[in-house]
Amino acid sequence: xxxxxxxxxxxxxxxxxxxxxxxxxxxxxxxxxxxxxxxxxxxxxxxxxxxxxxxxxxxxxxxxxxxxxxxxxxxxxxxxxxxxxxxxxxxxxxxxxxxxxxxxxxxxxxxxxxxxxxxxxxxxxxxxxxxxxxxxxxxxxxxxxxxxxxxxxxxxxxxxxxxxxxxxxxxxxxxxxxxxxxxxxxxxxxxxxxxxxxxxxxxxxxxxxxxxxxxxxxxxxxxxxxxxxxxxxxxxxxxxxxxxxxxxxxxxxxxxxxxxxxxxxxxxxxxxxxxxxxxxxxxxxxxxxxxxxxxxxxxxxxxxxxxxxxxxxxxxxxxxxxxxxxxxxxxxxxxxxxxxxxxxxxxxxxxxxxxxxxxxxxxxxxxxxxxxxxxxxxxxxxxxxxxxxxxxxxxxxxxxxxxxxxxxxxxxxxxxxxxxxxxxxxxxxxxxxxxxxxxxxxxxxxxxxxxxxxxxxxxxxxxxxxxxxxxxxxxxxxxxxxxxxxxxxxxxx
Length: 493
Prior knowledge:
Elements: H1 19-25, E1 30-34, E2 39-42, H2 44-50, H3 54-57, H4 62-65, H5 71-86, E3 90-100, E4 109-122, E5 128-137, H6 139-149, H7 159-189, E6 193-198, E7 203-207, H8 209-214, H9 225-228, H10 237-247, E8 251-260, E9 269-281, E10 287-296, H11 298-335, H12 339-362, E11 368-369, H13 370-378, E12 386-389, E13 394-395, H14 397-416, E14 426-434, E15 437-445, H15 458-466, E16 474-480, E17 483-491
Parallel strand pairs: 12-14
Antiparallel strand pairs: 1-2, 1-5, 3-4, 4-5, 6-7, 6-10, 8-9, 9-10, 11-13, 14-15, 15-17, 16-17
Helix pairs in contact: 11-12, 12-13, 12-14, 13-14, 14-15
Protein backbone atom coordinates (compact mmCIF):
# COMPACT_ATOMS: atom_id res chain seq x y z
CA UNK A 1 0.00 0.00 0.00
CA UNK A 2 3.00 2.27 -0.01
CA UNK A 3 3.53 2.40 -3.77
CA UNK A 4 1.61 5.66 -4.31
CA UNK A 5 4.24 8.40 -4.63
CA UNK A 6 3.47 12.14 -4.84
CA UNK A 7 5.88 14.98 -5.58
CA UNK A 8 5.87 17.69 -2.91
CA UNK A 9 6.31 21.24 -4.19
CA UNK A 10 8.11 23.53 -1.72
CA UNK A 11 6.26 26.60 -0.47
CA UNK A 12 7.61 29.98 -1.49
CA UNK A 13 9.48 31.83 1.23
CA UNK A 14 7.35 34.41 3.00
CA UNK A 15 4.14 33.24 1.33
CA UNK A 16 0.99 32.22 3.23
CA UNK A 17 -0.08 28.58 3.59
CA UNK A 18 -0.58 26.69 0.35
CA UNK A 19 -3.94 25.13 1.24
CA UNK A 20 -3.98 22.86 -1.81
CA UNK A 21 -0.66 21.37 -0.74
CA UNK A 22 -1.79 21.26 2.87
CA UNK A 23 -4.87 19.25 1.91
CA UNK A 24 -2.80 16.88 -0.20
CA UNK A 25 -0.27 16.26 2.60
CA UNK A 26 -2.68 15.77 5.50
CA UNK A 27 -1.75 12.46 7.18
CA UNK A 28 -5.38 11.41 7.55
CA UNK A 29 -7.37 10.29 4.47
CA UNK A 30 -9.64 13.00 3.01
CA UNK A 31 -11.73 13.11 -0.13
CA UNK A 32 -14.33 15.53 -1.54
CA UNK A 33 -17.57 14.63 -3.35
CA UNK A 34 -19.99 16.81 -5.31
CA UNK A 35 -23.78 16.68 -4.91
CA UNK A 36 -23.98 13.72 -7.30
CA UNK A 37 -21.50 11.82 -5.09
CA UNK A 38 -18.75 12.01 -7.70
CA UNK A 39 -15.12 12.49 -6.65
CA UNK A 40 -13.85 16.07 -6.89
CA UNK A 41 -10.56 15.61 -5.04
CA UNK A 42 -8.70 13.13 -2.83
CA UNK A 43 -5.51 13.61 -0.82
CA UNK A 44 -2.43 11.41 -0.81
CA UNK A 45 -3.38 9.50 2.33
CA UNK A 46 -6.79 8.59 0.85
CA UNK A 47 -5.16 7.34 -2.34
CA UNK A 48 -2.74 5.21 -0.30
CA UNK A 49 -5.37 3.46 1.85
CA UNK A 50 -7.68 2.84 -1.13
CA UNK A 51 -4.77 1.96 -3.44
CA UNK A 52 -6.09 4.24 -6.15
CA UNK A 53 -4.43 7.07 -8.02
CA UNK A 54 -6.19 10.49 -8.18
CA UNK A 55 -6.84 10.22 -11.92
CA UNK A 56 -8.70 6.95 -11.29
CA UNK A 57 -11.07 8.67 -8.88
CA UNK A 58 -11.72 12.25 -10.06
CA UNK A 59 -15.03 12.52 -11.94
CA UNK A 60 -16.21 9.02 -11.08
CA UNK A 61 -18.86 8.07 -8.53
CA UNK A 62 -17.97 6.85 -5.05
CA UNK A 63 -20.25 3.83 -5.32
CA UNK A 64 -19.06 3.17 -8.85
CA UNK A 65 -15.47 2.87 -7.60
CA UNK A 66 -16.34 1.06 -4.37
CA UNK A 67 -19.71 -0.69 -4.83
CA UNK A 68 -21.41 -2.32 -1.87
CA UNK A 69 -25.07 -3.36 -2.16
CA UNK A 70 -25.11 -4.63 1.42
CA UNK A 71 -25.80 -3.06 4.80
CA UNK A 72 -22.48 -1.19 4.96
CA UNK A 73 -23.05 0.40 1.56
CA UNK A 74 -26.54 1.48 2.59
CA UNK A 75 -25.28 3.08 5.82
CA UNK A 76 -22.50 4.93 4.02
CA UNK A 77 -24.84 6.27 1.30
CA UNK A 78 -27.47 7.36 3.87
CA UNK A 79 -24.85 9.24 5.90
CA UNK A 80 -23.47 11.12 2.88
CA UNK A 81 -26.95 11.93 1.50
CA UNK A 82 -28.06 13.27 4.91
CA UNK A 83 -25.15 15.69 4.84
CA UNK A 84 -25.99 16.71 1.27
CA UNK A 85 -29.71 17.22 1.99
CA UNK A 86 -29.56 18.78 5.48
CA UNK A 87 -26.29 20.72 5.37
CA UNK A 88 -25.24 19.18 8.71
CA UNK A 89 -22.24 16.95 9.55
CA UNK A 90 -22.72 13.23 10.12
CA UNK A 91 -20.46 10.39 11.25
CA UNK A 92 -20.25 6.59 11.38
CA UNK A 93 -18.34 5.17 14.35
CA UNK A 94 -17.38 1.81 12.80
CA UNK A 95 -18.06 0.71 9.22
CA UNK A 96 -16.90 -2.61 7.73
CA UNK A 97 -16.43 -1.92 4.01
CA UNK A 98 -14.64 -4.16 1.48
CA UNK A 99 -12.22 -2.47 -0.92
CA UNK A 100 -11.65 -3.97 -4.40
CA UNK A 101 -7.97 -4.78 -4.92
CA UNK A 102 -6.13 -3.95 -8.16
CA UNK A 103 -4.97 -6.79 -10.38
CA UNK A 104 -1.38 -6.10 -9.33
CA UNK A 105 -2.37 -7.10 -5.80
CA UNK A 106 -4.18 -10.24 -6.90
CA UNK A 107 -7.65 -8.73 -7.48
CA UNK A 108 -10.72 -9.59 -5.44
CA UNK A 109 -11.81 -7.68 -2.32
CA UNK A 110 -10.21 -6.93 1.02
CA UNK A 111 -12.42 -6.33 4.08
CA UNK A 112 -11.43 -3.16 5.88
CA UNK A 113 -12.87 -1.26 8.85
CA UNK A 114 -13.37 2.49 8.88
CA UNK A 115 -14.47 5.33 11.12
CA UNK A 116 -16.05 8.03 8.90
CA UNK A 117 -16.85 11.70 9.35
CA UNK A 118 -18.77 13.65 6.68
CA UNK A 119 -18.80 17.47 6.63
CA UNK A 120 -20.80 19.76 4.26
CA UNK A 121 -19.28 22.65 2.33
CA UNK A 122 -22.09 25.15 1.64
CA UNK A 123 -22.41 27.13 -1.59
CA UNK A 124 -23.57 30.77 -2.02
CA UNK A 125 -27.20 29.62 -1.99
CA UNK A 126 -26.81 28.02 1.45
CA UNK A 127 -27.17 24.49 0.09
CA UNK A 128 -24.54 21.79 0.37
CA UNK A 129 -22.22 22.10 -2.64
CA UNK A 130 -19.57 19.53 -1.65
CA UNK A 131 -19.17 16.81 1.00
CA UNK A 132 -15.80 16.26 2.69
CA UNK A 133 -15.11 12.76 4.04
CA UNK A 134 -12.41 12.11 6.61
CA UNK A 135 -11.84 8.41 7.28
CA UNK A 136 -9.71 6.57 9.77
CA UNK A 137 -8.68 3.07 8.72
CA UNK A 138 -8.99 0.89 11.86
CA UNK A 139 -8.46 -2.39 9.99
CA UNK A 140 -5.06 -3.11 11.58
CA UNK A 141 -6.54 -2.71 15.06
CA UNK A 142 -9.22 -5.23 14.19
CA UNK A 143 -6.59 -7.66 12.85
CA UNK A 144 -4.35 -7.28 15.92
CA UNK A 145 -7.36 -8.05 18.08
CA UNK A 146 -8.05 -11.25 16.13
CA UNK A 147 -4.37 -12.31 16.32
CA UNK A 148 -4.22 -11.63 20.06
CA UNK A 149 -7.44 -13.32 21.06
CA UNK A 150 -8.32 -15.62 18.19
CA UNK A 151 -11.71 -15.90 16.56
CA UNK A 152 -13.36 -16.94 19.83
CA UNK A 153 -10.96 -15.26 22.27
CA UNK A 154 -12.01 -12.87 24.97
CA UNK A 155 -10.99 -9.23 24.75
CA UNK A 156 -9.22 -7.43 27.53
CA UNK A 157 -11.45 -6.03 30.31
CA UNK A 158 -13.05 -2.78 29.17
CA UNK A 159 -12.56 -3.30 25.41
CA UNK A 160 -15.99 -4.81 24.90
CA UNK A 161 -17.50 -1.95 26.91
CA UNK A 162 -15.84 0.61 24.65
CA UNK A 163 -17.09 -1.11 21.51
CA UNK A 164 -20.56 -1.47 22.97
CA UNK A 165 -20.69 2.21 23.92
CA UNK A 166 -19.55 3.18 20.41
CA UNK A 167 -22.30 1.07 18.91
CA UNK A 168 -24.88 2.50 21.32
CA UNK A 169 -23.80 6.05 20.51
CA UNK A 170 -24.04 5.32 16.80
CA UNK A 171 -27.50 3.79 17.22
CA UNK A 172 -28.60 6.81 19.27
CA UNK A 173 -27.25 9.17 16.62
CA UNK A 174 -29.11 7.33 13.89
CA UNK A 175 -32.34 7.50 15.92
CA UNK A 176 -31.79 11.20 16.54
CA UNK A 177 -31.15 11.78 12.85
CA UNK A 178 -34.40 10.01 11.94
CA UNK A 179 -36.32 12.18 14.41
CA UNK A 180 -34.56 15.30 13.14
CA UNK A 181 -35.36 14.38 9.55
CA UNK A 182 -38.99 13.82 10.50
CA UNK A 183 -39.20 17.27 12.11
CA UNK A 184 -37.46 18.79 9.09
CA UNK A 185 -39.99 17.16 6.75
CA UNK A 186 -42.86 18.58 8.85
CA UNK A 187 -41.22 22.02 8.78
CA UNK A 188 -40.69 21.92 5.02
CA UNK A 189 -44.20 20.63 4.21
CA UNK A 190 -46.17 22.81 6.64
CA UNK A 191 -49.02 24.66 4.85
CA UNK A 192 -48.10 27.99 6.46
CA UNK A 193 -44.86 29.76 5.58
CA UNK A 194 -41.99 29.46 8.08
CA UNK A 195 -38.47 30.87 8.27
CA UNK A 196 -35.70 31.15 10.85
CA UNK A 197 -33.37 34.15 10.83
CA UNK A 198 -30.33 33.56 13.03
CA UNK A 199 -27.41 35.55 14.41
CA UNK A 200 -26.99 39.17 15.38
CA UNK A 201 -27.44 40.27 11.75
CA UNK A 202 -30.50 38.00 11.27
CA UNK A 203 -29.47 35.83 8.32
CA UNK A 204 -31.83 33.26 6.86
CA UNK A 205 -30.99 29.85 8.33
CA UNK A 206 -34.07 27.86 7.29
CA UNK A 207 -37.06 28.47 5.02
CA UNK A 208 -39.82 25.98 4.21
CA UNK A 209 -41.52 25.26 0.90
CA UNK A 210 -44.44 27.66 1.54
CA UNK A 211 -42.02 30.53 2.25
CA UNK A 212 -40.10 29.73 -0.93
CA UNK A 213 -43.35 29.81 -2.90
CA UNK A 214 -44.28 33.17 -1.35
CA UNK A 215 -40.99 34.84 -2.36
CA UNK A 216 -40.74 33.29 -5.82
CA UNK A 217 -38.29 30.48 -4.99
CA UNK A 218 -35.33 32.81 -4.53
CA UNK A 219 -32.21 31.43 -2.78
CA UNK A 220 -32.12 33.20 0.60
CA UNK A 221 -30.34 30.87 3.05
CA UNK A 222 -27.20 32.54 4.39
CA UNK A 223 -28.36 36.03 3.37
CA UNK A 224 -29.71 38.93 5.39
CA UNK A 225 -33.18 40.29 4.70
CA UNK A 226 -31.79 43.26 2.77
CA UNK A 227 -29.68 40.92 0.60
CA UNK A 228 -32.39 38.32 0.04
CA UNK A 229 -35.51 40.51 -0.29
CA UNK A 230 -34.32 44.11 -0.85
CA UNK A 231 -37.76 45.30 -1.92
CA UNK A 232 -39.23 44.82 1.59
CA UNK A 233 -36.61 46.86 3.47
CA UNK A 234 -38.23 50.24 2.71
CA UNK A 235 -41.59 48.71 3.65
CA UNK A 236 -40.41 48.53 7.28
CA UNK A 237 -39.85 44.80 7.70
CA UNK A 238 -36.10 44.98 8.42
CA UNK A 239 -36.75 47.47 11.22
CA UNK A 240 -39.63 45.31 12.49
CA UNK A 241 -37.41 42.21 12.72
CA UNK A 242 -34.68 44.17 14.50
CA UNK A 243 -37.25 45.52 16.96
CA UNK A 244 -38.48 41.99 17.75
CA UNK A 245 -34.87 40.88 18.32
CA UNK A 246 -33.92 43.87 20.48
CA UNK A 247 -37.13 44.12 22.55
CA UNK A 248 -37.53 40.32 22.83
CA UNK A 249 -41.26 40.73 22.24
CA UNK A 250 -43.52 38.85 19.86
CA UNK A 251 -45.15 40.79 17.03
CA UNK A 252 -48.47 39.71 15.48
CA UNK A 253 -49.47 41.11 12.08
CA UNK A 254 -52.91 40.71 10.51
CA UNK A 255 -53.69 41.34 6.84
CA UNK A 256 -50.41 43.23 6.46
CA UNK A 257 -49.65 44.44 2.94
CA UNK A 258 -46.25 43.47 1.52
CA UNK A 259 -45.04 44.01 -2.04
CA UNK A 260 -42.81 41.20 -3.33
CA UNK A 261 -40.95 40.68 -6.60
CA UNK A 262 -41.95 37.06 -7.20
CA UNK A 263 -40.27 36.74 -10.62
CA UNK A 264 -36.75 38.02 -11.49
CA UNK A 265 -37.94 40.70 -13.92
CA UNK A 266 -41.52 41.04 -12.73
CA UNK A 267 -43.40 43.91 -11.18
CA UNK A 268 -43.99 44.09 -7.43
CA UNK A 269 -46.92 41.87 -6.44
CA UNK A 270 -48.97 42.97 -3.44
CA UNK A 271 -49.78 40.18 -1.01
CA UNK A 272 -51.57 40.29 2.33
CA UNK A 273 -50.15 38.25 5.20
CA UNK A 274 -51.12 37.12 8.68
CA UNK A 275 -47.88 36.38 10.53
CA UNK A 276 -46.10 36.10 13.87
CA UNK A 277 -42.52 37.20 14.56
CA UNK A 278 -41.20 35.31 17.58
CA UNK A 279 -37.79 35.96 19.20
CA UNK A 280 -35.76 32.74 19.72
CA UNK A 281 -34.41 32.80 23.28
CA UNK A 282 -31.44 30.79 24.54
CA UNK A 283 -31.47 29.29 28.09
CA UNK A 284 -29.53 32.32 29.37
CA UNK A 285 -32.06 34.75 27.93
CA UNK A 286 -30.01 35.84 24.92
CA UNK A 287 -31.76 36.13 21.56
CA UNK A 288 -30.29 33.82 18.92
CA UNK A 289 -32.66 34.81 16.13
CA UNK A 290 -36.26 35.35 15.02
CA UNK A 291 -38.80 32.73 13.97
CA UNK A 292 -41.35 33.72 11.29
CA UNK A 293 -44.64 31.86 10.83
CA UNK A 294 -47.74 32.89 8.95
CA UNK A 295 -50.11 32.49 6.04
CA UNK A 296 -50.94 34.25 2.77
CA UNK A 297 -54.47 35.67 3.18
CA UNK A 298 -54.52 37.70 -0.04
CA UNK A 299 -57.57 35.87 -1.42
CA UNK A 300 -59.50 36.42 1.81
CA UNK A 301 -58.66 40.13 1.97
CA UNK A 302 -59.63 40.70 -1.65
CA UNK A 303 -62.87 38.77 -1.15
CA UNK A 304 -63.68 41.02 1.82
CA UNK A 305 -62.96 44.09 -0.32
CA UNK A 306 -65.20 42.74 -3.06
CA UNK A 307 -67.96 42.01 -0.60
CA UNK A 308 -67.80 45.53 0.84
CA UNK A 309 -67.77 46.99 -2.66
CA UNK A 310 -70.84 44.96 -3.61
CA UNK A 311 -72.71 46.00 -0.47
CA UNK A 312 -71.88 49.67 -1.06
CA UNK A 313 -72.88 49.35 -4.71
CA UNK A 314 -76.13 47.61 -3.75
CA UNK A 315 -76.99 50.41 -1.33
CA UNK A 316 -76.24 52.97 -4.03
CA UNK A 317 -78.35 51.15 -6.62
CA UNK A 318 -81.28 50.70 -4.27
CA UNK A 319 -81.28 54.44 -3.56
CA UNK A 320 -81.04 55.23 -7.27
CA UNK A 321 -83.81 52.78 -8.12
CA UNK A 322 -86.11 54.25 -5.47
CA UNK A 323 -85.38 57.74 -6.74
CA UNK A 324 -86.10 56.62 -10.32
CA UNK A 325 -89.40 54.99 -9.30
CA UNK A 326 -90.36 58.09 -7.34
CA UNK A 327 -89.67 60.33 -10.36
CA UNK A 328 -91.57 58.02 -12.72
CA UNK A 329 -94.58 57.97 -10.37
CA UNK A 330 -94.53 61.73 -9.92
CA UNK A 331 -94.26 62.56 -13.62
CA UNK A 332 -96.72 59.88 -14.73
CA UNK A 333 -99.26 61.19 -12.24
CA UNK A 334 -98.90 64.69 -13.67
CA UNK A 335 -99.46 63.57 -17.28
CA UNK A 336 -102.37 61.09 -16.90
CA UNK A 337 -105.98 62.05 -16.35
CA UNK A 338 -107.47 58.91 -14.78
CA UNK A 339 -106.33 56.31 -12.23
CA UNK A 340 -106.60 53.58 -14.86
CA UNK A 341 -104.38 55.50 -17.28
CA UNK A 342 -101.89 56.16 -14.49
CA UNK A 343 -101.77 52.48 -13.53
CA UNK A 344 -101.21 51.39 -17.12
CA UNK A 345 -98.45 53.92 -17.85
CA UNK A 346 -96.76 53.47 -14.46
CA UNK A 347 -96.69 49.65 -14.70
CA UNK A 348 -95.28 49.77 -18.23
CA UNK A 349 -92.44 52.03 -17.16
CA UNK A 350 -91.66 49.86 -14.12
CA UNK A 351 -91.58 46.79 -16.36
CA UNK A 352 -89.07 48.53 -18.64
CA UNK A 353 -86.91 49.32 -15.64
CA UNK A 354 -87.25 45.71 -14.46
CA UNK A 355 -86.30 44.29 -17.86
CA UNK A 356 -83.09 46.28 -17.91
CA UNK A 357 -82.33 45.13 -14.35
CA UNK A 358 -82.81 41.53 -15.48
CA UNK A 359 -80.16 41.99 -18.15
CA UNK A 360 -77.75 43.46 -15.63
CA UNK A 361 -78.46 40.77 -13.06
CA UNK A 362 -77.67 38.07 -15.64
CA UNK A 363 -74.24 39.70 -16.06
CA UNK A 364 -73.68 40.16 -12.29
CA UNK A 365 -74.24 43.90 -12.76
CA UNK A 366 -70.95 44.28 -14.59
CA UNK A 367 -72.32 45.30 -18.01
CA UNK A 368 -75.14 44.84 -20.51
CA UNK A 369 -74.96 44.82 -24.31
CA UNK A 370 -76.54 47.83 -26.01
CA UNK A 371 -78.23 45.56 -28.58
CA UNK A 372 -79.86 43.46 -25.82
CA UNK A 373 -81.18 46.56 -24.03
CA UNK A 374 -82.70 47.80 -27.31
CA UNK A 375 -84.26 44.47 -28.31
CA UNK A 376 -86.00 44.10 -24.95
CA UNK A 377 -88.28 46.94 -26.15
CA UNK A 378 -88.51 46.20 -29.90
CA UNK A 379 -88.70 42.41 -30.03
CA UNK A 380 -92.43 42.22 -29.01
CA UNK A 381 -93.40 44.10 -32.21
CA UNK A 382 -91.96 41.45 -34.56
CA UNK A 383 -88.67 41.21 -36.47
CA UNK A 384 -90.19 42.74 -39.64
CA UNK A 385 -91.03 45.99 -37.82
CA UNK A 386 -87.50 47.04 -36.83
CA UNK A 387 -83.82 46.88 -37.75
CA UNK A 388 -80.81 47.27 -35.44
CA UNK A 389 -77.39 47.97 -36.96
CA UNK A 390 -74.20 48.74 -35.09
CA UNK A 391 -71.07 47.28 -33.47
CA UNK A 392 -71.06 45.40 -30.19
CA UNK A 393 -71.06 47.87 -27.29
CA UNK A 394 -71.14 47.06 -23.58
CA UNK A 395 -72.91 49.50 -21.29
CA UNK A 396 -72.16 50.05 -17.62
CA UNK A 397 -75.07 49.49 -15.19
CA UNK A 398 -75.92 53.22 -15.03
CA UNK A 399 -75.70 53.57 -18.82
CA UNK A 400 -77.85 50.45 -19.34
CA UNK A 401 -80.58 51.75 -16.99
CA UNK A 402 -80.63 55.13 -18.76
CA UNK A 403 -80.82 53.62 -22.25
CA UNK A 404 -83.44 51.10 -21.08
CA UNK A 405 -85.76 53.92 -19.97
CA UNK A 406 -85.11 55.95 -23.15
CA UNK A 407 -85.80 52.98 -25.47
CA UNK A 408 -88.96 52.19 -23.53
CA UNK A 409 -90.29 55.71 -23.96
CA UNK A 410 -89.43 55.75 -27.68
CA UNK A 411 -91.03 52.35 -28.28
CA UNK A 412 -94.13 53.29 -26.29
CA UNK A 413 -94.52 56.57 -28.22
CA UNK A 414 -94.01 54.73 -31.56
CA UNK A 415 -96.67 52.15 -30.63
CA UNK A 416 -99.21 54.80 -29.58
CA UNK A 417 -98.65 57.61 -32.05
CA UNK A 418 -95.76 56.78 -34.38
CA UNK A 419 -94.49 54.19 -36.85
CA UNK A 420 -95.43 51.10 -34.82
CA UNK A 421 -99.08 52.23 -34.62
CA UNK A 422 -99.58 51.71 -38.40
CA UNK A 423 -99.43 48.35 -40.25
CA UNK A 424 -96.60 49.36 -42.57
CA UNK A 425 -94.52 51.36 -40.14
CA UNK A 426 -91.07 50.42 -38.90
CA UNK A 427 -88.20 51.62 -36.73
CA UNK A 428 -84.53 51.68 -37.83
CA UNK A 429 -81.87 52.06 -35.14
CA UNK A 430 -78.20 52.49 -36.01
CA UNK A 431 -75.17 53.43 -33.94
CA UNK A 432 -71.45 53.96 -34.13
CA UNK A 433 -68.76 53.79 -31.47
CA UNK A 434 -65.77 55.96 -32.28
CA UNK A 435 -63.06 57.19 -29.92
CA UNK A 436 -64.96 56.22 -26.80
CA UNK A 437 -68.16 58.05 -27.80
CA UNK A 438 -71.43 56.39 -28.78
CA UNK A 439 -73.70 58.03 -31.37
CA UNK A 440 -77.14 56.42 -31.89
CA UNK A 441 -80.00 57.38 -34.22
CA UNK A 442 -83.62 56.18 -33.85
CA UNK A 443 -85.58 56.72 -37.08
CA UNK A 444 -89.29 56.01 -37.61
CA UNK A 445 -90.94 55.65 -41.03
CA UNK A 446 -94.23 54.45 -42.59
CA UNK A 447 -96.40 55.72 -39.76
CA UNK A 448 -98.89 58.59 -39.45
CA UNK A 449 -97.78 62.11 -40.33
CA UNK A 450 -95.93 63.71 -37.45
CA UNK A 451 -96.24 67.25 -36.17
CA UNK A 452 -94.44 68.83 -33.22
CA UNK A 453 -96.36 68.41 -29.94
CA UNK A 454 -98.12 71.40 -28.40
CA UNK A 455 -96.72 70.53 -24.94
CA UNK A 456 -93.77 68.55 -23.65
CA UNK A 457 -94.80 65.38 -21.84
CA UNK A 458 -92.91 63.25 -19.34
CA UNK A 459 -91.65 60.92 -22.04
CA UNK A 460 -89.93 63.74 -23.93
CA UNK A 461 -88.36 65.13 -20.77
CA UNK A 462 -87.20 61.65 -19.66
CA UNK A 463 -85.59 60.99 -23.06
CA UNK A 464 -83.73 64.29 -23.09
CA UNK A 465 -82.66 64.23 -19.46
CA UNK A 466 -81.86 60.54 -18.85
CA UNK A 467 -78.43 60.76 -20.48
CA UNK A 468 -77.50 64.09 -18.92
CA UNK A 469 -76.10 64.68 -15.43
CA UNK A 470 -73.45 62.18 -14.36
CA UNK A 471 -73.46 60.39 -17.74
CA UNK A 472 -72.60 63.53 -19.67
CA UNK A 473 -74.75 62.59 -22.71
CA UNK A 474 -77.42 64.31 -24.71
CA UNK A 475 -80.62 63.55 -26.68
CA UNK A 476 -82.31 65.50 -29.49
CA UNK A 477 -85.84 64.86 -30.76
CA UNK A 478 -86.79 65.87 -34.33
CA UNK A 479 -90.48 65.64 -35.23
CA UNK A 480 -90.07 65.33 -39.01
CA UNK A 481 -93.18 64.83 -41.19
CA UNK A 482 -92.06 61.33 -42.24
CA UNK A 483 -91.52 60.17 -38.67
CA UNK A 484 -89.76 60.87 -35.40
CA UNK A 485 -85.95 61.00 -35.41
CA UNK A 486 -84.10 60.79 -32.08
CA UNK A 487 -80.33 61.28 -31.89
CA UNK A 488 -78.48 60.15 -28.75
CA UNK A 489 -74.83 60.76 -27.83
CA UNK A 490 -72.88 59.45 -24.84
CA UNK A 491 -69.19 59.18 -23.83
CA UNK A 492 -68.86 55.55 -22.71
CA UNK A 493 -66.90 54.66 -19.61
